[in-house]
Hints:
This protein has helices at about 50-65, 85-100, 110-120, 125-135, 145-160, 180-190, 200-220, 225-235, 245-265; strands at about 10-15, 20-25, 35-40, 70-75, 105-110. It has about 270 residues and is of the alpha/beta class. It has two domains: about 10-195, 2-Layer Sandwich (Nucleotidyltransferase, domain 5); about 200-265, no CATH class. It has a five-stranded mixed sheet with strand order 3-2-1-4-5, sandwiched between helices. Strand 2 and strand 3 form a beta hairpin. Helix 1 (about 50-65) packs parallel to helix 2 and helix 4 (about 125-135) packs across helix 5 (about 145-160). The longest helix has 23 residues, at about 200-220. It is globular.
Amino acid sequence: xxxPGPVLRVLGVDPGLTRCGVGVVEVTPDxxxxxxxxxxVRTPSDxxxxxxxxxxxxxxxxxxxxxxxxAVAVERxxxxxxxxxxxxxxxxxxxxxxxxxxxxxxxxLHTPSEVKAAVTGYGNxxxxxxxxxxxxxxxxAEAPKPADAADALALAVCxxxxxxxxxxVGVQSGSLTPxxxxxxxxxxxxxxxxxxxxxxxxxxxxxxxxxxxxxxxxAASGTSAxxxxxxxxxxxxxxxSAxxxxxxxxxxxxxxxxxxxxxxGA
Length: 266
């Protein structure tokens, strides 16, 4: 299936036994993305495991055959306290990896934190924030439901924006498909911008503005080089706990994310 221009088509898979999200997006070198398709492959919990895997494999294969992606992105399985859940996720993930490998399609694995950071600019974003931002990035009136569908699309967008990162599987320069090479070359022509999302760029701008304001306040108050020592002494005498910096960091991250969201909504 031919597509005009250097457009990269990525199929994302949010693996799971009960619900396996599959989403397809197209991304241009200027990082504009549009949704091509999204679906959720479902299997009943009372079905035999091997039969559930057959259904999931067939569902993933059907989407690959229909949409002919240039790359496949799969959520990287990580340790969980619930062993049954992580086992089911790993089994569904293996089916997606196999479906791509037998067709010679490059695969990328991404952790949930990487996907959240790519789409929202904040690695600890919650599911609602991810859903809201993926809808905005793709120009949708609302996020696809259930969450597995939105997560699959977020994985696909994340992979396209991170193409060429060192943690990719099978996406070395020598194994890029013609479409991927054209997309990469066209992307290089845009000035080599980093793979940050709109919210990430707004967050960085908000953080920069905050740092500039703080610096101006320090200059106006005539703070001397000895001031940090005095401030440290004051903090020590006030009995501040060691956990305080962690709480402050969390507050700053939350403030930056909020400011960025307001900028995009303006």
